[in-house]
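Re: that backbone. Tokens:
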């Protein structure tokens, strides 16, 4: 049995877990089997999955799909489609269901978030190694500042303008200040508003309605944001 770089045991994942669960998102009121599992805790449902209940597994995968998308939207990888990152997140979610042990005293949601994030980061690192792309070619606004299990992220610093421990931080204070300043310099007022709303988890439609713009205008603004930030990070050798 193989292990990934974090020591998590890895079996060959069934093909359906890398494809079937990537269909269009369902809204909460049409999640399959909600009437059966809606009153149970996630931990109880995971135990049912371990007992071989495939319906319980499908319920959890669909229940957490929006959560996976929310995590995935904070990562950009040059040359990769956003859905590729979402799919990696879904694989991480599947692993969390498979590997969760209630005796570790952490909630399933916390464990799932850890597995999803680790899977995405591992996939990005693997992709950059295989393509001989330097690690500074991907941007993670949720990049941990100390290690991959840290709660303190680049996004926290950018939004708050705060500072971490200068002895331990991977990203030094000057870099963080430059990034924070550059975001204000290179992004237009509209782009800053759109980025802020997007990172708050709002959909394109919601952002468009709030700002009185067409959805296409919102999409174009986010594409410009991505290009500008990637260009800045590449030119300055960040990350």
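Recovered sequence:
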């Amino acid at each position: 049995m193989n292990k990934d770089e974090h020591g998590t045991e890895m079996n060959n994942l069934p093909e359906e877990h890398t494809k079937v669960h990537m269909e269009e998102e369902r809204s909460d009121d049409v999640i399959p089997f909600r009437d059966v599992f809606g009153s149970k805790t996630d931990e109880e449902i995971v135990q049912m999955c371990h007992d071989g209940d495939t319906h319980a597994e499908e319920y959890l995968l669909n229940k957490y799909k929006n959560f996976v998308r929310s995590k995935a939207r904070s990562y950009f990888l040059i040359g990769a489609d956003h859905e590729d990152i979402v799919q990696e997140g879904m694989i991480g979610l599947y692993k969390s269901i498979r590997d969760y042990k209630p005796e570790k005293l952490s909630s399933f949601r916390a464990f799932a978030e850890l597995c999803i994030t680790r899977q995405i980061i591992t996939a990005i690192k693997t992709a950059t190694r295989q393509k001989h792309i330097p690690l500074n070619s991907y941007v993670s606004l949720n990049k941990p500042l100390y290690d991959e299990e840290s709660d303190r992220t680049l996004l926290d610093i950018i939004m708050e303008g705060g500072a971490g421990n200068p002895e331990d931080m991977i990203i030094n204070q000057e870099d963080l200040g430059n990034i924070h300043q550059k975001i204000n310099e290179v992004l237009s007022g509209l782009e800053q508003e759109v980025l802020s709303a997007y990172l708050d988890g709002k959909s394109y439609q919601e952002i468009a309605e709030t700002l009185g713009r067409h959805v296409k205008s919102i999409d174009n603004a986010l594409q410009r944001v991505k290009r500008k930030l990637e260009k800045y990070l590449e030119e300055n050798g960040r990350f």
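The longest strand covers residues 75-77. Confidence is low (pLDDT under 50) at residues 1-30, 132-139, 143-150, 156-174.
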